[in-house]
Amino acid sequence: MHIDLSHSKITPEGGALARAEKALQTLREGTLPNTGWVSLPSAFPGPLLLSIQEEADRIARKCTLFIVVGVGGSYLGARAVIDALNGNRPGRPHVMFAGYNMTGAHLEKVIEAMREQSTCLCVISKSGSTLEPLLAYSILKEEMFNKYGEQRAKERIYVVTGAQDSPLRRDIETYGFRSYAVPEDIGGRYSVLSVVGLLPIAVAGIDIERLLKGAAGLSMEGIAAYAAVRIALQEAGKAVEVFTYFSTNLRYFGEWLKQLFGESEGKEGKGVYPACLCFSRDLHSIGQFLQQGRQVFYETMIQTEKPQADFRIPDCAGAPYAGRMLEEVNRCSEAGVVEAHSGGGVPVNLIKVERMDEENLGALIYFFELSAAVSALLLGVDPFDQPGVEYYKKATKKLVEEL
Ligand code: PA5
Q1: How far, in Å, CA of 189 to CA of 256, rounded?
Q2: What residues are annotated to the active site?
Q3: 389: confidence class by pLDDT, cuts 50, 70, 90
Q4: Helix, strand, or coil (residue 140)
Q5: Which ligand 1 atom minimizes the distance to the CA of 190?
Q6: What sign does the dihedral 249-277-235-265 (CA atoms) show?
């Protein structure tokens, strides 16, 4: 992985980098609350890893469809990784996500797919009481009972939740569903490399050991510098960080980044608003504004040097394209955008990986998790709480109870 901050054309004020280095060191010491995720890549408990892998293989033998019910950090990480690595491996179940919305048309589609295919259901919620996933789960659990009968359905339903009392914990006790505990010291948006993300990812056939190995091998070089540049850009008046990428497979990685930075930094009137754009598509829409509209943006571009697919352009495309790899043209567009955006006054940070595989993605995830936490610490806010989300959850619950 290579971090190139030169196109951001800003030097953090003296001392900012040292503060960022110090914050990174404090995080890595693991003394702060809610930092259980920091040691996961290098010290993931072996028996738990084996249990996740074996359970995922058993699930894969049982079904063709694995429905994951969850919202926020309880689904975005898994979805981001599975999409970034091009979906489930051949012969492994398709992983479908539910419970992150309350759209009837979407739930109908999930139920339809479930009726047509051999299905396992997995609900993931640390609190065990979040409205959206709990509602979807109660409906889908009933569908599973109707389809398989209660006894057989019990062997196809999985619950990943915190240890405290909750409706989900009570269901584990009532029905004896197979379950995993979400560690107390790991919050939703930092949980992708815990059982929360790893179970669905392993069901999709992705090598979770390689993902952890990549994260464990991440060089700490560049993390503090990126965090310090982010704060300097914010102090220079930039209010929006736009994460950009030239692969449709990274769309959910962008969504995961939005949650990670948005919930970690956006409180007490502080933080930059995280947005994401998928190029080429968005170059032909919002890209115009990014480059020449009101200048509140800076860009953080995720670049992948080697393509995931060797698609060669056929002769019908004519010169100069015929015979070239499609990704070569994509790289030209990428270089053109860096030139146009940074040349036009938009600061651009480049985060480069050699290829989008398990190791590099693991490193990328860990890089951004550490960067988000360091940035929040530099801003003086708690990276690990989300009081606004809790407020909305309570307000909605009250209104629902009055229905
Ligand atoms: O990052 C967080 O902690 C939150 O965004 C949660 O992931 C989200 O609210 C879902 O919570 P839960 O897993 O308790 O259902």
Answers
A1: 8
A2: 263, 284, 393
A3: confident
A4: helix
A5: 1
A6: negative
Q: Where in the chain is the domain with CATH 3.40.50.10490?
A: 2-28+218-379, 40-214
Give 165's DSSP letter: -
Ligand 1 within 6 A of CB of 389: yes
Which residue, by CA, sits nearest to atom 15 of ligand 1? 125
CA of 106 to the centre of ligand 1 (A): 21
Q: Domain 40-214 class?
A: alpha beta
Q: Is the CB of 127 under 6 A from ligand 1?
A: yes
Predicted confidence at residue 14, as pLDDT, reads: 77
The Cα–Cα gap between 11 and 224 comes to 13
285 Cα–ligand 1 center, Å = 32
Q: What pLDDT score was predicted for residue 222?
A: 94
Residue type, 277: L
For 22-34, b where at least 16 C-beta lie within 10 A, e where not — what string? Answer: ebbeebeeeebeb
- Residue 224 · residue 24 · CB < 8 Å: yes
Q: CB-based contacts of 14: which residues, under 8 Å, 6+ apart?
A: none
Q: pTM of the full predicted structure?
A: 0.96
Q: What are phi and psi of 246, to 5 degrees?
A: -110, 30
Length of the chain (residues): 403
Distance 347 CA to ligand 1 centre (A): 32
- Judging by beta carbons within 10 Å of its beta carbon (0-12, 13-18, 19+), is residue 398 exposed, middle or buried? exposed
User: What pLDDT digit, counting tens, does each position of 7-38 carry?
Assistant: 998 999 879 999 999 999 999 998 899 999 99
The fold for domain 2-28+218-379 equals Rossmann fold (3.40.50)
CA 126–ligand 1 middle distance (angstroms): 7
The string of pLDDT tens digits covering residues 329-377 is 999 999 999 999 999 899 999 999 999 999 999 999 999 999 999 999 9
Q: How confident is the model at residue 110 (pLDDT cuts 50, 70, 90)?
A: very high
Alpha carbon nearest to ligand 1 atom 5, residue: 72
| Contact (CB, 8 A) for 342 and 291 | no
Cα dist from 304 to 220, 221, 260, 349, whole Å: 20, 19, 21, 14
Q: Report helix, strand or coil for 51.
A: helix
In percent, how much of the chain has pLDDT > 70? 100
Give the separation between CA 146 and CA 369, rounded to whole angstroms.
41
Residue 385 clears pLDDT 90, i.e. is over it:
yes
